[in-house]
Design goal:
This protein is an alpha+beta fold and 414 residues long. It has helices at 7-21, 60-72, 81-94, 106-117, 144-147, 175-182, 240-252, 272-279, 326-338, 401-411, and strands spanning 36-37, 47-48, 102-104, 119-122, 125-130, 133-139, 155-161, 166-169, 189-195, 203-208, 210-213, 217-222, 228-233, 259-263, 288-294, 299-303, 314-319, 341-344, 352-358, 364-373, 389-390. It starts with 6 loop residues before the first helix and ends with a helix.
């Protein structure tokens, strides 16, 4: 028995979506030569593609499995064509073997966009992969995860949420599914089982989700004379450049400020251009901030384009294992170009660039398009940046030894 929309009618839609899913801005289409489809009007998609003859793909196995499920699976109500199509696309993207290239169904795509926009409901952790294992990149400041002492580098081995009927290990999980399982409405509880290096038994934490609306850039004046600007950048999101400019202006009107700490600890990254914008305040116009190396070996340089308002100040940067991606771009650029010291612990090590593409019906595709290098040509991927001054923070520390070390270095004579 066919389900809603009908499995025979939905064939063209599925193939159309598979085609759309591999259009990477330039016109490569996957399918069968001469394919032309008018897709079921209920799905509001119309596709017409002329496929190069050398790109033929045999979809017979796909349709064989589709037909077996439609005829034999006992619970016809769970055979939702749209979800199955999204699953097929997700599988196609995950088959690449790159954990950072991913297809995002509409709900998950909305979550990612909310994260970068600065307002969302959840536990407040950024997650990624260390090799193939799901790991915490960083907890956000003031979030339920930070309050529960979740640490950068913790491996997430199990996720449980009774209300959502989630009770799953994370072996083989992809990033969108992990985000969907952990994210949820404020006031609800998700239980994470964590493995932490140096701790002999798994750690189980119950996290109550909350409404999170956190500025990505904050400013405090520290030191005995409050003459050091401590600038915390928690991510590189949609509002970061605007928030950064406000902080820069607040620093410039205080003549007593003699040094700046850029605190990138537990900053999981975000938009590459945002990192370039921040770096531009410390270097002359036209200075290379980051190098993009494409798959064909060609390179593009991103250069500073703004007036360097903070060039006169002495600067240090704080990093740790939760500093990733755009955080490493900024850190690597300022160390290479200005000899600015990095203080703290080795960074996460994410050296690839993803392009977010909005696709049909509110879905999205994040595809790795290139790798990035520091101005001196260093690729940090899975290696991280080694600090110039290594200071390892411990749970037993009564003060922030890394921040104290940064203040001490700024106060020292050149």
């Amino acid at each position: 028995m066919p389900i809603k929309l009908g499995f025979s009618k939905v064939r063209n839609f599925i193939l159309a979506i598979l085609l759309i899913g591999v259009v990477f801005g330039g016109g490569y289409y996957l399918g069968v030569a001469g394919y032309k489809a008018e897709v079921d009007k209920a799905l509001h998609v119309t596709v017409s593609r002329q496929i190069p003859a050398d790109k033929n793909v045999d979809f017979s196995l796909f349709w064989q499995i589709w037909d077996i499920l439609s005829s034999k699976y006992y619970n016809k109500g769970s055979l939702v064509p749209e979800k199955m199509v999204y699953g097929a696309i997700s599988g196609m993207v995950s088959a690449i073997g790159d954990p950072y290239s991913m297809f995002l169904p509409p709900t998950q795509n909305k979550m990612v966009n909310e994260d970068l926009g600065g307002s969302f409901e959840g536990v407040g952790i950024e997650i990624g992969f260390r090799a193939t294992r799901l790991a915490v990149i960083s907890p956000l400041a003031g979030s339920p995860a930070e309050k529960a002492n979740v640490k950068p580098g913790d491996y997430i081995i199990h996720i449980k949420d009774i209300k959502k009927n989630v009770d799953m290990g994370t072996d083989g999980i992809n990033l969108p599914d992990a985000v969907a399982a952990i994210r949820g409405p404020a006031g609800t509880i998700v239980t994470l089982t964590l493995v932490r290096e140096g701790v002999g038994t798994p750690i189980v934490v119950d996290l109550t989700r909350a409404k999170l609306n956190i500025d990505s850039v904050t400013l405090n004046f520290v030191g005995d004379n409050k003459d050091v600007a401590d600038v915390k950048v928690s991510k590189f999101g949609a509002e970061t450049a605007k928030e950064w400019d406000k902080v820069v202006n607040a620093i410039l009107v205080k003549p007593e400020v003699k040094g700046i700490i850029i605190d990138l600890r537990n900053n999981p990254g975000g938009y590459l251009q945002s990192a370039v914008d921040l770096a531009s305040d410390f270097v002359p116009i036209g200075t290379t901030v980051v190098i993009q190396e494409n798959g064909d070996g060609t390179r593009n340089e991103y250069k500073s384009t703004r007036l360097g308002k903070l060039m006169k100040y002495k600067v240090v940067i704080l990093i740790n294992g939760g500093s990733a991606s755009a955080s490493e771009i900024l850190s690597g650029a300022l160390r290479d170009q200005k000899k600015i010291k990095l203080i703290g612990e080795k960074s996460f090590g994410k050296g690839t660039i993803q392009e977010p593409i909005e696709t049909a019906r509110g879905s999205g595709l994040h595809v790795t398009t290139a790798k990035w290098l520091t101005p001196n040509g260093t690729w940090v991927h899975e290696k991280g940046l080694i600090p110039d001054v290594i200071l390892v923070a411990k749970d037993t520390d009564k003060t922030d030894i890394q921040l104290d070390g940064a203040i001490e270095i700024l106060n020292s004579k050149p």
